[in-house]
Amino acid sequence: MLVIINAFKSISRSKGRNILIGIIVLAIAASSCIALAIRNAADDAEAVGLESVSITGTISVDRQKLIEENGGGGRGDMSQMRELMERYKDLELDELLIYSDSAYVKDFNYSSSTALNATGELKAYGSEDNADNDSDNVFVSPEGGMVARGGGPGGGGGGMRGGRAIMVGRALTIGDFTVTGYSSEEAMTKFMNSTASIKEGEMFDIASDDMTCLISDVLAYTNGLSVGDSIVLANPNYDSDDEDIDENGDDEDIANEDNAEDNAYGENAGEYTFTIVGIYTDTSSGEVNDMPMFSTAQDPANLICVSYPSLSAVIENSIENEITGTDDWGTETTTALTDTLSSSFIFADKGDYDSFTEELTAKGLSEYYVLTSSNLNNYESSVIPLRNLSAFATTMLFIILAIGAVILVVINVFNIRERKYEVGVLTAIGIKKGKVAMQFVTELLCVTLSAIIIGTVVGAVISVPVSNNLLATQIERAEDEALNQAQSFGRPGGGPISFDGGGGGGRVMSFSSFGGGENERISYLETVNASVNLMILAQLILIGIGLTLVSSLAAVIFVMRYEPLKILANRA
Amino acid sequence: MNENYVTFTDVVREYRTGSVPVRAANGITFNLQKGKLNIIVGPSGAGKTTVLNILGGMDSATSGKVTVDGRDISRLSKREICTYRRDDVGFVFQFYNLIPNLTALENVELASQIRKDAFDPRTVLEDVGLGHRLGNFPAQLSGGEQQRVAIARAIAKNPKLLLCDEPTGALDYETGKSILQLLQDVCRIKGVTVVVITHNSAVMPIADRVIKIKSGKVKAILHNDNPTPVSDIEW
Ligand SMILES: Nc1ncnc2c1ncn2[C@@H]1O[C@H](COP(=O)(O)OP(=O)(O)OP(=O)(O)O)[C@@H](O)[C@H]1O
Ligand SMILES: [Mg+2]
């Protein structure tokens, strides 16, 4: 008590000295505060970035591992290899769905593609050149690679896998159009990354099997189609009854003979009617043109987007009405449509991705399957600048604290030397050195703490624009992305909030929280500042107490060294 | 017991700063009575301050024995010495030694802060004639006034021993006299054992006992059964 009273008396009596210490501590506190604020803002910005950049992963067969197991290199036994490949096929959707039921998976989406033919007046874009040849073409593709690559929008993020049909080594029929069914909007990567966008009409209902579709503007133009029109597409495995019956196809198209009786199933067997609800533009369609094409279905212009339920209805119908036979080589043939599944798991961050990899093994996924991500590297490099900034701010902080500690100790040593006489008098009249030291430490603590609080306020005021800029840039970038996505689906560009109705999960969800309006965005920034400041204050006070104790230690050591008689004699 | 309230027995204090060791005290032996006014006189450099410092627990003897109230203070630890200084000794330094950023009253309050049965600081300051200067800082007081604050601080502790190193050295005749009067009163009224160092042999009659020191040795001890009141002496 006595010590505290004397400390306060002493502080109020030697203002000059305490103001000097206060200014130095204030400067240290303010610069520490700025460094801390930059670090926190960088971390926050990284967190905002994390929400906008999600990691996409795919489970696929680890072919590398299969080859290694088979003796590596080209020396392996080919039939054994084929047997292994046969055994470890890509996972079915129902298996994937089981795995996707995990706390680490933020979202699981998939799309499936099949090829369908044009009927009647409808022409696939690019089919004029080689007339009707394409329509009934059978392309035997034991390796499966080329067909699978034609994936269109579904292929971007998910990592397209070889179709199931290919794995059985069966002939794959190539149609005029690729019809892709999507489980969710996130699966429509072209729309998500804004290379494609709806320019007329609207997005189909992703959850419904109402047979509505989106077609490309190129296709719409070629066929004079508009929103509201219907198109009829046919199962290419049937021998169609239209005028396309080819002049050259007989010896190639084995299926033709078997399918001669298809008509027994009625005019509409294997024909599916879709209603156009929207027309989209694909800015990337030009890029594909220089690739060799085996089918017009590979042309992005001939991509027809539908909901996954619609596509599965088509596939199921074709299976129900399937006609099996045997071709000349003794291979089984079927009219059932096959589809190529493309799926992706979406993770909130790398930690979840890694945990999910472990979980897969724990859940009993064979070692021949592997979780891979195409955008993990992208994601990691996107956070590097922020991590660097954070590390830089941390280094700065430590340098400031180290220099600050040295300055404080030096000041204190000088301070105590100046007060040597006081120590002498106080100890001479019988006050214990410990008490004298405690009084000095109390004085220092009061001055330091109040300087830290003022310094923090000053630092916070200075650092607000700095950290806000950092955050604003990051948030804007993320918002722009969300805005573009909304516009891709033909929704009013009012902001991310308009996305909510669309059932947008994943990255979109994270932005719906701060709404579309400018005001709401500002309040979001403000809450970030407030939380940063509270944390900084707590950290700084801890740092301040630490620094004060370090520098007081110097004071205590000096006080202990003095013998009262020596001090008083020196003065005389 | 009263006769040997304070005893110095063959006390030696040697300084070894230069090439030749200096014996500031070279076998000092004397004793003091309780509640009496004692004066130490001697030429400059004789060892008076050295003796007083040893008695006040500010310094320690190289050899010899010092007892106060039956307690051997030459054998105390540093901690015990500090407690002894706090509880038993009121020291008035030759150069006042006040805390510059505390007022006169606050300087005296230091004493009452550390001693439970201390005297009221205001009363003591009034006793030394500074009742009207309580709120002044040392720099605002004259040398004599500062000396009186220092004496007040020593008295306020209500010590067993009041040790004053040349309390009148810097003072004019009148002020010096009033200080001496004060010390005599403390001794008579409060029963404190007072030791005063002085150069001025004219004040010797006011003391109960005078110890003459020269070159680190006790030259003579004078007993005075009828000390003169301070008001009766002149110099
Ligand atoms: N710290 C010291 N180191 C070395 N010598 C010292 C020290 N203190 C005192 N002395 C010496 O001891 C001797 C006695 O000193 P002391 O201060 O006791 O004298 P004094 O009688 O008080 O003189 P004065 O009347 O001038 O104050 C002196 O010769 C002095 O030089
Ligand atoms: Mg002296």
Task: List descriptors.
heterodimer; A: 572 residues; alpha+beta; 2 domains; 6-stranded mixed β-barrel; two-stranded antiparallel sheet; 14 strands; 52% helix; B: 235 residues; alpha/beta; Rossmann fold; 6-stranded mixed β-sheet; 4-stranded antiparallel β-sheet; 29% helix; globular; binds adenosine-5'-triphosphate; binds magnesium ion
Give your account of this protein's structure:
- The complex is a heterodimer of chains A (572) and B (235).
- Chain A is of the alpha+beta class.
- Chain A has two domains: 2-50 and 383-571, no CATH class; 96-352, no CATH class.
- Helix content of chain A is 52%, strand content 15%.
- Chain A is built from 19 helices and 14 strands.
- In chain A, the strands form three sheets. Chain A has a six-stranded mixed barrel with strand order 2-5-10-7-9-8. A two-stranded antiparallel sheet of chain A has the order 3-4. In chain A, strands 11-12 form a two-stranded antiparallel ribbon.
- In chain A, α2 (15-52) crosses α18 (518-561) and α14 runs parallel beside α18 (518-561).
- The radius of gyration of chain A is 36 Å and the shape is elongated.
- Chain A starts with a helix and ends with a helix.
- Mean pLDDT of chain A is 72; it is low at 129-173, 240-267 and 494-528.
- Chain B has a single domain, classed as 3-Layer(aba) Sandwich (Rossmann fold), CATH 3.40.50.300.
- Helices cover 29% and strands 26% of the residues of chain B.
- Chain B contains six helices and ten strands, in the order βββαββαβαααβαβββ.
- Chain B has a six-stranded mixed beta sheet with strand order 6-7-8-3-9-10, sandwiched between helices. Chain B has a four-stranded antiparallel beta sheet with strand order 2-1-4-5, with helices on one face.
- The radius of gyration of chain B is 17 Å and the shape is globular.
- The interface between A and B is medium-sized, with 23 and 27 residues.
- Adenosine-5'-triphosphate binds at residues 15, 17, 22, 24, 42, 44-50 of chain B.
